[in-house]
C-alpha cells in the first residue's frame, strides 16, 4: 500500500512551488521505494491538479534533473559566500568544492543512494538525471583550470589541457560513487579519497613526471624519424 504525504492532504489555493514538488517527490520515492506511477497519481497525494505540476516540470525526469542542478547550485552558493574562497589556489578551490558538495549531498543521501545506482551504470548513463549539471560543472572546472594555468599550478599541454575539465568530471563521478559506497564513520574515507584524488590530478596537470615522459617521447621520435 502506498504512503501519502500527510500534511499535503488539505487543499490550498496557494500556488505550489518547484521546491515543494521536489521535496515531496523525494519523500514519496523514499516512502514508497519507487517512482510515482504517473503525474496524476503524484499530484493526487498533494490534493492538487495535474496541471500544476506542468507549470514547473514536464516530466519526473525533468524534476530529478532539477534536484541535481539544485545541489550543484547550492554548493557553489555556499562556496562563494565564504570570503576566503577567492584567495584559494585552484587546487584548494576544487578540494573545497568536493567537500562542500558532499556536505550538501548528505541532505539527500537516502534518495541519492536509492535512485543513483542505476543512473551510474554505463548502459544507463545517457538517460541519467545526474548529467543535468554536467555542462555547468565543466564550465566551473574549466575556470579553475584556466586559473591554475595563469598561476602556474597547471601546465598547458597540446590536446591534453583542452580535456582537463572532462577528466575532473570523471573524478567527480568517482567521488560520488565512492561516497555512496562509503560505510566509514562520518564518511572519513571519502574525505581521504577526495584529498588524494585532487592532489593526484593537480600533480599530473602541473609540472610532473608526465612532462618528463612527454619530453623523452619527443626526443625518441626526433631521433628515429
Automatic annotation (TrEMBL):
Annotated Gene3D superfamilies: Tetracycline Repressor, domain 2
Transmembrane regions listed in the UniProt entry: none
Domain Tetracyclin repressor-like C-terminal stretches: 93-220
A Pfam family matched in the record: TetR_C_23
Record InterPro entries: Tet_transcr_reg_TetR-rel_C_sf, TetR_C_23
Name under which the protein is recorded: Tetracyclin repressor-like C-terminal domain-containing protein
Amino acid at each position: 500500500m502506498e504512503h501519502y504525504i500527510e500534511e499535503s492532504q488539505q487543499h490550498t489555493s496557494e500556488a505550489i512551488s518547484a521546491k515543494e514538488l521536489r521535496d515531496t517527490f523525494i519523500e514519496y520515492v523514499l516512502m514508497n521505494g519507487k517512482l510515482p506511477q504517473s503525474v496524476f497519481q503524484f499530484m493526487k497525494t498533494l490534493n492538487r491538479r495535474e496541471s500544476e505540476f506542468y507549470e514547473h516540470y514536464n516530466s519526473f525526469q525533468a524534476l530529478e534533473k532539477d534536484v541535481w542542478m539544485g545541489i550543484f547550485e547550492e554548493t557553489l552558493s555556499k562556496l562563494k559566500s565564504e570570503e576566503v574562497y577567492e584567495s584559494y589556489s585552484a587546487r584548494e578551490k576544487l578540494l573545497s568544492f568536493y567537500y562542500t558538495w558532499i556536505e550538501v549531498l548528505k541532505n539527500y543521501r537516502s534518495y541519492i543512494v536509492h535512485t543513483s545506482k542505476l543512473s551510474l551504470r554505463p548502459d544507463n548513463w545517457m538517460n541519467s538525471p545526474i548529467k543535468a549539471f554536467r555542462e555547468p560543472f565543466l564550465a566551473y572546472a574549466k575556470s579553475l583550470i584556466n586559473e591554475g594555468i595563469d598561476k602556474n599550478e597547471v601546465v598547458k599541454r597540446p590536446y591534453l589541457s583542452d580535456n582537463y575539465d572532462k577528466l575532473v568530471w570523471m573524478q567527480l563521478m568517482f567521488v560520488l560513487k565512492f561516497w555512496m559506497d562509503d560505510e566509514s564513520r562520518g564518511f572519513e574515507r571519502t574525505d581521504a579519497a577526495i584529498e588524494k584524488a585532487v592532489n593526484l590530478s593537480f600533480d599530473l596537470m602541473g609540472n610532473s613526471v608526465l612532462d618528463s615522459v612527454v619530453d623523452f617521447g619527443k626526443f625518441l621520435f626526433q631521433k628515429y624519424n
